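testing teh design pipeline on a random one, pls ignore if ur not involved
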């Protein structure tokens, strides 16, 4: 049994001047608030590669980072008149109870905008498919598992989608991704020496598991939001098997507006108490837990 923690936003976040102790790695922190008047000064198409962005730890909203996401990774929503390609089209809500719990907080809101990170194949245990099909929502689907994303891409979801992971740093990084368990894929955390794999081990594991251990590009969540042009989010579902706390730490909360979040916490090394403190410091209220067979999450609002 796993638990999701729901959070609900209770007020506007603190102004930027009260958050200066946070290192969000934004262009305005480096170059001043007027940098956007001449963004071409910071962008060279020739130099703009994922390798360059990673090596130079480019800012979350750096023009090169946004260019990479838009041109190399971001897939647009399927046309609304294109039928879904689902395995179980008669199943109205495939989530494990999370979507209904969130919608109770939002009073069955229609025309909302979601982010689902850990979207799997876009159908199985999807926490957003019901919102999309029945309540006319759209949003962003993020899935780093190559096999799962290939299936997601064929579902004709009416949302943006990306085959990437969310960075645990306030800049783009490339990580080793273990997809040997399709329903529980995870990042091999560079900060955890016990999980480090040598190049030989990676190759051996890849051969044994049919290529289940491979490198994946990660971007900060805020970078993806800027690339899509959306910073007001009605629901953010985060389920990435252990990196949730670090991902949330990268978000410049004074730049975004989230109504609700639901975060899996049972694999988070920092624990539930640390997660609660982090969210409360950013003006969110915990709304208990959602007990589910497949995940452990906390809801925030």
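output:
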């Amino acid at each position: 049994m796993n638990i999701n923690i729901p959070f609900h936003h209770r007020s506007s976040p603190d102004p930027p001047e009260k958050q200066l102790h946070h290192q969000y790695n934004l262009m305005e922190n480096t170059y001043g608030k007027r940098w956007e008047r001449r963004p071409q000064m910071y962008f060279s198409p020739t130099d703009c590669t994922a390798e360059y962005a990673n090596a130079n730890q480019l800012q979350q909203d750096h023009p090169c980072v946004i260019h990479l996401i838009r041109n190399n990774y971001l897939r647009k929503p399927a046309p609304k008149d294109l039928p879904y390609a689902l395995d179980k089209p008669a199943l109205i809500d495939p989530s494990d109870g999370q979507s209904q719990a969130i919608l109770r907080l939002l009073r069955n809101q229609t025309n909302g905008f979601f982010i689902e990170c850990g979207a799997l194949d876009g159908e199985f245990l999807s926490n957003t498919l019901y919102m999309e099909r029945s309540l006319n929502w759209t949003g962003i689907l993020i899935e780093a598992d190559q096999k799962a994303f290939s299936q997601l891409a064929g579902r004709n979801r009416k949302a943006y989608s990306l085959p990437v992971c969310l960075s645990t740093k306030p800049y783009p990084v490339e990580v080793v991704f273990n997809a040997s368990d399709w329903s529980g894929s995870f990042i091999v955390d560079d900060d955890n020496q016990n999980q480090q794999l040598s190049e030989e081990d990676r190759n051996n594991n890849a051969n044994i598991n049919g290529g289940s251990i491979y490198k994946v590009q990660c971007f900060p969540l805020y970078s993806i939001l800027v690339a899509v042009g959306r910073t007001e989010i009605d629901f953010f579902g985060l389920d990435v098997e252990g990196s949730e706390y670090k991902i949330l730490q990268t978000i410049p909360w004074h730049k975004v507006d989230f109504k609700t979040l639901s975060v899996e916490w049972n694999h988070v090394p920092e624990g539930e108490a640390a997660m609660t403190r982090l969210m409360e410091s950013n003006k969110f209220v915990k709304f208990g837990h959602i007990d589910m067979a497949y995940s452990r999450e906390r809801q925030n609002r």
